[in-house]
Amino acid sequence: MQDKFEEGIEFFKRAVHIFPYLTEAHFNMAMAYIKLGDIGGVVRAFREVIRVGEDEELVSMARRRLADLERETVQLTGLSLETFLNNSEIYRKACSALENREFNSAISLFRRVLATDPKHVQSWGNLGLAYAGTGERGNALECLDKALGLDPEYEVAAVNRIAIEKLKEGERLEGKMDSVNYYRDYKGKGKKSYISEILRNFVDLLKK
Fold first, then answer.
1. What pLDDT sits at residue 54?
2. How far is 44 from 41, CA to CA, in rounded Å?
3. DSSP code of 168?
4. Furthest-apart CA pair in the chain: how many Å?
5. Which structural domains are found in the chain, ordered by start?
6. Per-residue DSSP letters for 63-74?
7. Which is it for the CA torsion 146, 189, 115, 136, positive or negative?
8. What pLDDT digit, counting tens, does each position of 166-195 carry?
């Protein structure tokens, strides 16, 4: 099913490349992104509907649905839609840096997420790993403790803390790092998926 929606998006992209003012294609692309759970794609496509502005009815629907999405995002995450999307992109880059063992870059990027979302558990946990990669044991344990303070059942952080606690200050954590590389969508025991919840509520609104 996912392949079907991805193929649909590629079709709509080709259509708007040839006919940039084909409002219906932008709108249908947004609906396909909803099915894929890609909030960024939904927002970009609806904004294109508004920018093109060739179909007043679709423009009105796009404005209303963006407003609904903004409201759901604020209600569930406490962040504006723009901040949520910006943090998602920064977090993606931070995780890429962590996976490539570019630890100083990862530290800077995770800190940027935490500047606007200080209760973001995954950033604290992954920041701890980044510090462990530079040999800063004390900072690493402090970050992991903050992650576990926010979510005592965050198993990834608990496991990583055990490994890092065995290190000496200045000793770097080697080998594969067990990180969480998606923003606001960690589903632990009894935890909700924020992205799924936002889009599920949004889809319910579309049916009304």
1. 86
2. 5
3. P
4. 64
5. 2-77 (1.25.40.10), 87-191 (1.25.40.10)
6. HHHHHHHHHHHH
7. positive
8. 999 999 988 766 666 554 455 554 455 555
